[in-house]
Specification:
- The structure is a homodimer.
- The first copy, chain A, is built from eleven helices and 19 strands.
- Chain A is an alpha/beta fold.
- Chain A is elongated, with a radius of gyration of 23 Å.
- The N and C termini of chain A lie close together (11 Å).
- The interface between A and B is large, with 78 and 78 residues.
- Chains A, B: Keywords: Isomerase, Pyridoxal phosphate.
- Chains A, B: Pathway: Amino-acid biosynthesis; D-alanine biosynthesis; D-alanine from L-alanine: step 1/1.
């Protein structure tokens, strides 16, 4: 399916002037999906592309997953489904939030052939009163997350009247080793899904897939793993890194006398320090918590963040970097490798999230629209 | 200037189904700008609308500020300037990052009549070799932030050859009471700006305006204050609140037996607890740090966040809210008032930022595109 869409494209001409470059390796996304699909054996792996494919671009990611063989997708809200439908005309798309509000809220589902996940009795009633009888839908069964989903008594009461195409539940603690709730949820889901014998069943997120066959059921819903995050953080990451994030140096300065740097004057630079300020900040999703603790790679050397992260700017202390690498226009690498043949790599996605005091999901979804985005690799790579 | 553009518009028809509603009071933005302009007396107040007007929409905010009398704008990067130019055809627009890269990087400046702030000798050289001689530009003089700007020796060396329309510098600690660096920067800027007698001078951000006339020079650059943030957090906030943020309840559930809630099972709900899950999460800019500590207003009662913030969902413990207010489709208010005539208000912008462990700037810029956005109030309100 290589020929269908040109997935390799160079940076746009304006990217030479962009403050940040985000390279998304779609080949790695496809490889990661295939890795999860292989773990599923004869069962199916879907692709979770909610929140604009965790911030990486739902259209590009949707296309490459479909080309790799993914036939079922999950998004959070109907608007995302409408956007995805344009690039995966033949796939099944489930919308996790279900329809919100009145019967008007059903329009995007019917128009773009989206299947809602019905999460509560209200949504079930809304769908059954206004959607055509044959329109397929999924049903969310609550098993311990206590967020959305039909509680057990409703799941039992409604079973004889409903014929969903899919029943799902969410694991709350699949990434925590031996958390007792995980087995409890497995037991509860196994029992509840048997009330809907004609429906396919789906319980596992990325971490759930790793937990083994008991958790696989008919369909898994990997998300984080597709984007290179480690589903089980206490074990080595089996997935390929997808992202390279590089920030453009706007200006280099040598400090002649001891100086403070940035808002709040929190960093003290001794005389002789060389500082480089890049054109990206927390408005670009680089969390403020990286201030005075983060680092990047420049010319193969780790350069620390100097002072606070500003809205549009971050300053690095580049004194230790080789001078040939230090110039205005250079790129400091925060995630991934500096060049394709670099041996050392800057942070992985998980490492940078840890450094920022959060989880890879939040870091991913906060990555900004202001970066020049480059997609490399394609379905066949 | 009321008639020029319709600034009051109702929620779009789809907003009844949106997971979150962000109401931006443009009348309050205009009032806040006028407040800052009044403090400046005969001197000028610009409008800082970088990072998409701190996330609130550069076009809507640009229009209303221009209608209120704002004639000078600051953005971070040229792309933002190109977008702003469409709605403020006659205004002066400065781009704080200056031109990046090669001479190609100058194109948007010339095409959209944007004035770069030149931050270093390289940018000065680039501009002077490729821009028409008469094209106006600003010059950034470094006085203690050590982020961008010409150091003193360069500022002196270049003074005889340059005729900028504006010289600027940034205060690093203006919001910290009596920080010694603030006065040092004032002294340094006063001296350096005298090297450029034909240029207008600008030092103050929102906090700087509050510090009094010594800091005003010709032009101030308020940003945060326009959006209702408190420039001097140790004093009462003189600005009007701009935002109301409300999240749609997807589902209400009563817990029959003690249960845990959400990822990691970090919240224990006793039997009888009523939980409401809303359709917004950290992918919508509601920082994960609000998990198990934030709260919203529902029916006039404070309802706490139950468990972790998920990517697309947050659960609240609504047991204490009046039952008439608790239904699927209800709105939980996180910032601002529940209705126009509510006496109690949920968080101010600053309060919610503090609760999330960050500053209002980061919270503002992380607010999401997935909200249905409603603009109320206009230039004349």
């Amino acid at each position: 399916m290589n020929e269908s869409t040109p997935l390799d494209r160079p940076f746009s001409s304006s990217s030479a002037h962009a403050g940040g470059l985000l390279t998304v390796d779609l080949g790695a996304v496809a490889d990661n999906w295939r890795h999860m699909a292989a773990l599923m054996g004869a069962k199916e792996a879907a692709g979770v592309v909610k929140a604009n494919a965790y911030g990486l671009g739902v259209e590009a990611v949707g296309r490459v997953l479909a080309a790799a063989g993914c036939r079922t997708f999950f998004v959070a809200v109907p608007e995302e489904g409408v956007q995805l439908r344009k690039v995966v005309p033949g796939a099944v798309i489930y919308v996790l939030s279900g329809p919100i509000g009145s019967s008007e809220g059903l329009a995007p589902f019917l128009k773009s052939n989206l299947r809602p996940i019905l999460n509560c009795a209200d949504q079930v009633a809304l769908w059954r009163s206004h959607a055509p009888g044959a329109a397929p839908y999924g049903l969310h069964l609550e098993t311990g997350m206590n967020r959305l989903g039909l509680p057990e008594f409703e799941a039992r009461a409604m079973a004889t009247n409903l014929a969903p195409s899919l029943v799902i539940s969410h694991l709350a603690c699949a990434d925590v080793p031996n958390h007792p709730l995980t087995e409890e949820q497995l037991r509860a889901f196994t029992e509840l899904r048997s009330l809907y014998p004609t429906a396919r069943a789906s319980l596992a997120n990325s971490a759930g897939v790793m937990l083994g066959r008991d958790y696989h059921f008919d369909l898994a819903r990997p998300g984080l793993a597709l984007y290179g995050g480690n589903p089980l953080p206490h074990l080595p990451n089996p997935l390929a890194q997808v992202l390279t994030l590089q920030l453009r140096v706007l200006q280099v300065r040598r400090v002649d006398t001891p100086q403070s740097v940035g808002y709040g004057a929190t960093y003290r630079a001794p005389a002789g320090t060389v500082l480089a300020t890049v054109a990206a900040g927390y408005a670009d999703g680089l969390l403020r918590s990286l201030g005075n603790s983060g680092w990047g790679l420049l010319g193969g050397v780790r350069v620390p963040v100097a002072g606070r992260v500003s809205m549009d700017l971050i300053t690095f202390d580049v004194s230790e970097a080789p001078s040939q690498a230090v110039y205005s226009g250079a790129l400091i690498t925060l995630i991934g490798r500096e060049t394709a043949d670099s041996t050392e790599q800057a942070h992985t996605l998980d490492e940078l999230a840890t450094e920022a005091g959060t989880i890879p999901y939040e870091l991913l979804t906060s990555l900004s629209r202001r970066y020049a985005r480059r997609y490399v690799g394609g379905a066949g790579s």
